[in-house]
Amino acid sequence: MIPQLSKEISLDPLYLSYFKTLAAEGAFAGEIEYSYAARLSAATDNSVYQLLPAGILFPKTPADIQAALRLAARKEFRGIRFAPRGGGTGTNGGSLTSGVIIDVSRHLKGIGAVDPEKRTVHAEAGVIKDWLNEQIKQYGLFFSPNLSTSNRATLGGMISNDASGQGSLKYGKTSQHILDTDVVLMDGSLVTFGPVSGDELKAKMDLATIEGQIYRTVYEIAVGKRDEIVKAFPDLTRFLTGYDLKHVWDPETGVLDISRIICGAEGTLGFITGATLDLTPVPSFRALVNIKYDSFDSALRHAPELVNAGVLSVETIDSCVFAMAKKDIVWYQVKDLLTEVPGKTMDGINIVEFAGTDAALEKVRMDLLINTLNEELREGNSRGIIGYQTCTELKDIQAVYAMRKKAVGLLGNADGAEKPVAFVEDTVVPPEHLADFIKEFRELLDSHHLRYGMFGHVDSGVLHVRPALDLCDPEQEVMLRTISDKVAELTAKYGGIMWGEHGRGYRSEYGPKYYGGLFDELRRVKGVFDPDNRINPGKICAPYGNDSASLVSVDAVKRGFYDRQIPPGVRQSYNRVVSCNGNGACFSYDTTSPMCPTYKFMGDRIQSPKGRAGLMREWLRELEEAGVNPLLEEKLTEARGVTLGDLARKTWHTVTKRGYDFSDEVLEAMNVCLACKACASQCPIKVDVPDFRARFFNLYYSRYLRPAGDLLVRHFEESAPLMARLPALFNKVNSLSPAKFMVKKILGFVDVPVLSSPVLKELLREKAPERFDLNALEKLSPAERAKRVLIVQDTFTTVYDAPVVHDLVSLVAKTGKIPVLLPLKPNGKALHIRGYLREFAVTAAKTSDFYNRVFRLGIPMVGVDPAIVLCYRDEYRKTLGAARGDFVIQLTQEWLLDNLSLLTPRGKDENPYYLLAHCTQKSLKPGTHDDWVKIFRQVSLKLIPVPVGCCGMAGLYGHTAANEARSQAIYRQNWAPVFQKYPLNRCLVTGFSCREQVKRMEHAEVRHPLQVLNEIL
Ligand SMILES: Cc1cc2nc3c(=O)[nH]c(=O)nc-3n(C[C@H](O)[C@H](O)[C@H](O)COP(=O)(O)OP(=O)(O)OC[C@H]3O[C@@H](n4cnc5c(N)ncnc54)[C@H](O)[C@@H]3O)c2cc1C
Ligand code: SF4
Ligand code: SF4
Q: How are the residues of the chain apportioned to helix, strand and coil, as percentages rounded to the nearest 5?
């Protein structure tokens, strides 16, 4: 049994007092969070480092940040340190601190009015780049600096790291599109920095405030040291981050623009609250030419020539990245856009984009390139080009870039303990040296026998490489330092820099060597903004005059330090938990994407797959610290079951529980999860929260008593069919207020679904399917068997939505096949969800045994509810391994696709239907939408898939009192807007839970798509 994990990670009394005073004085309207779970959720980003903050402030307004800093200015709080944070997607620990994180991503999301004439807009620092562009697209404008994390990185983070990416050749870096920035300085003053010259500049320099000092100091350095600055700053399109002394002053116009120093300052000078952005017209023409090569080197060497063809961008990926993409859900959308070349090996690709507002010009450029490619291919070229494909549809272009954007994450999904890690991942050298630089880079990595994937913005000389290391191995951590140093030298040799895109962060120690004598000028800049080194200390440089302040180091404490405390066997068994690399792909705000509905709705990073995986990592570590091996505990619970002695012990632990238990913080995060499984497929690393959540519940409830409602779950599949024998009686009782009250109070359930009445048996009375008789079926000839289809029931649909099963039977009959209804067998998914793993394994074994016997008949087995059918494939396989056997139960759509020719419609219906597919189905069967569209097309019906997130029901989740409000709110966020747009009677819903949720929320029924087919055939 697991112990109580009562060792609270202490909070420095100074910080505790600061948080309490901030809350008590009432000037701070946002949230102040310092639970261990909250601190853990902000202890990592996408870097290799881990640092526990003292707490997190979520300001609601800039005034909140001012209040927080003014309080910190009091004598008693002078020891408090801060770091700003946005999306937390940084790759070098930029936002990590042991002090207070000020996270602007939760609330500072306002967007001002667009000025279409000037092409500007003002936005707050927590605005996410893709979201911003969605809001302003109606003006034909967009914020053009690009980055792979555009669906989760914030403006504050983009400005601070001076982000850029695909398209930077034309669109440039973030700093080139910032007209001014609003910044709260360490003294609590809110200042707007923008371009000033002449009298205005003089007036600024005359100010007696910290703002005035900043103007005076920066002017003095930028003008006085101009020649040294020009010499030291490389002439690259990806110029240096922190601090941009080269562009802050324009000698020709005499303009001083402090916002150019704020851009790329990596959160070390102040807290950005907003900025005025320069917008770009949306190109009217966009097209890709995806060129395929026999090697990565061929792709790289061809890139400079492509750049000269007037393209928007050239992005290169290697075969390793390509291979990882093929294993991911993202591949489904691009598989026809990047096909193999028969007889050739494709080991590199250049994604070449043509884009602009002059469509004719872009088209000419593109045709020119295509002609050249055709010529090269005809002549049997010697440059490694083996083929190309074009795509001009916006959705296809977006799909290719979605794959490219996911590349970093995908690399993290590599097998084995060595995982690609970020530390030399954004080098930049002049593009003409890139191929030679990469050759040496490869030699270096090969000499250490390291695996790696490569891709990058070859047009700008940026290379993304993440060597695979196991940082749980101390020796490999040493190797990280060695390689880091060597790459720093290598980039210098080729006239480049090590931090071309993602900022310096923990690589700040390379700064002094790089800048030489100029480094002190950077320190003077830091010194005037932050003399006491309180904002993100240790990053970029220490303030001038503060010689006791040190820089952070590449050798700082890494995640591996904590992970290696978890025994290797446990790490391996829970490998998806430990592999989460914090890339933040699970922080999607898009309500049409299945990715994490709880994070989307709550905006709380704890309630995301990353948050949950982080808690679980720590939980496994603390168990080890307490001398408990979870794998052994799992074996014990599996072998022993629940004895009377256990029950007594659990009762004792539950009743006498006093004080803190970290497991409770984990429990809270797990209870909120819907187990929708979106993370298991959408996360590039396939972090499968429902899987480890079930394992957590299993162990948690080996110590404590379960909630009473779990008993109902445990016996649900046995009791529901019994209740269904007297549906009218049970429905009546359930509708009575006292019964509802008791069910809610005692069992914790609400809105208990209504049993189908008439029951399935009655519904099928008229056209009864063939009775299932295994012996009789075995005796049939192969030809006779081929005429039959076995209908697999599940408890939920049969008992609560019997008409759907009836219609499947009827539909099968209409195709000319003989439907045979299999007896109802428990599936156990609900047991798995609640962590009854022993009981689930027993159920799964028995049910598998039955279906394996039936499967031998060679007759297709078809199930109706996607979540249940997919459970046979996923959870059954994980639990039983080879013992699961080979039985196959098809989803309805799969069987229909196999039998398309049997679908001949009687009537015609010109109006479209709309498909809302189940989350798990879309996640585990990415072709779901296309499959159903194809089936409907066969019967001359138009089906339009609607991209929607989770409906909020997820099995029993929405029926629990604890989750009722959240479940309904998730529905209102993701599904309700669909029914405002489309008529409910034309919307078709594949999941039983989803139909239940619609029934509850809209007080109306929606149909399964098979029911429409049944109607029309
Ligand atoms: C998979 C992956 C791909 C990436 N691809 C790219 C890419 O193509 N191009 C690119 O440029 N970057 C890329 N990055 C790096 C990162 O996403 C960007 O640098 C991004 O701009 C960081 O934004 P954020 O909101 O997540 O910032 P955070 O990670 O929260 O913070 C980054 C830095 O900004 C500071 N900061 C954040 N908000 C503020 C604020 N309001 N005021 C002052 N300082 C602040 C922090 O202190 C920190 O130093 C990638 C990262 C990942 C994980
Ligand atoms: S859970 Fe997945 S998507 Fe989220 S941060 Fe971890 S690896 Fe990235
Ligand atoms: S199962 Fe769904 S709700 Fe739970 S963490 Fe994964 S995506 Fe989020």
A: 50, 15, 40
Helices (H) and strands (E) in the chain, counts: 50, 29
Given a contact cutoff of 8 angstroms between Cβ atoms, the answer to whether 81 and 53 are in contact is no
pLDDT value at 507 more than 80: yes
Q: Does the C-beta of 598 come closer than 6 Å to ligand 3? A: yes
Q: How far apart, in whole angstroms, are the C-alpha atoms of residue 358 and residue 362?
A: 6
> 593 CA to middle of ligand 3, Å?
12
pLDDT of residue 521: 95
pLDDT at 860: 98
User: Of all helices (H) and strands (E), which one includes residue 161?
Assistant: helix 155-161
Which ranges of 265-378 would DSSP assign to H, the alpha helix? 296-307, 319-326, 331-334, 359-378
Measure the N-to-C terminal CA separation of the chain; round to a whole number of Å. 57
Residue located via tokens 């140093």: 485
Q: How far, in Å, is the centroid of ligand 2 from the Cα of 580?
A: 5
Which ligand 1 atom sits nearest the alpha carbon of residue 125?
A: 41
Average model confidence (pLDDT) across the chain: 93
**Binding site membership of 687 for ligand 3 (Cβ less than 6 Å):** no
Average pLDDT value for residue range 477-497: 94
Enter the pTM of the model.
0.93
Tell me: the pLDDT tens digits for 254-288? 999 999 999 999 999 999 999 999 999 999 999 99
pLDDT exceeds 80 at position 810:
yes
Task: Give the Cα separation of 556 and 550 in Å (integer).
Answer: 12
- Number of Cβ atoms within 10 Å of the Cβ of 738: 8
Asked if residue 62 lies in contact with residue 274, where contact means CB atoms within 8 angstroms, the answer is yes
Closest CA to 163 of 67, 71, 277, 83: 277
Ligand closest to Cα of 684 equals 2
Q: What is the pLDDT of residue 227?
A: 93
Give the DSSP letter of residue 743: I
Atom of ligand 2 nearest to the CA of 682: 3
Q: How far is Cα 975 from Cα 682, in angstroms, rounded to an integer?
A: 20
- Summarised one tens digit per residue, pLDDT across range 358-390 is 999 999 999 999 999 999 898 876 789 999 999
Taking only Cα atoms into account, the Rg of the chain, rounded to an integer number of angstroms, comes to 30
Q: How far is the CA of 151 from the centre of ligand 3 (A)?
A: 18
Q: Does any ligand 3 atom lie closer than 6 A to the CB of residue 675? A: yes
Q: Does residue 611 have its Cβ closer than 6 Å to ligand 2?
A: no
pLDDT at 861 over 80: yes
Please give the distance, rounded to the nearest whole angstrom, from the Cα atom of residue 833 to the centre of ligand 2.
21
| pLDDT band with cut points at 50, 70 and 90 for residue 407 | confident
Distance 587 CA to ligand 2 centre (A): 8
What is the tens place of the pLDDT at every residue in 762-801?
999 988 889 999 999 999 999 999 999 999 999 999 999 9
Res 381: pLDDT: 67
CA 627 to chain CA centroid, nearest Å? 33
Q: Tell me the DSSP string of 36-87.
A: HHHHHHTS--SSSB----SEEEE-SSHHHHHHHHHHHTSGGGTT--EEEESS
- CA of 814: how far to CAs of 819, 903, 990, 1009, in Å? 10, 8, 20, 15
Q: What is the DSSP string of 91-113?
A: SS-TT--SSEEEE-TTT---B--
User: Other CB atoms closer than 10 Å to residue 358's CB: what's the count?
Assistant: 12
DSSP string, 852-907: HHHHTT---EEES-HHHHHHHHTHHHHHHGGGG-S--EEEHHHHHHHTGGG---SS
Share of the chain above pLDDT 70, in %: 100
Q: ∠ CA 438-439-441 to the nearest 5 degrees?
A: 60
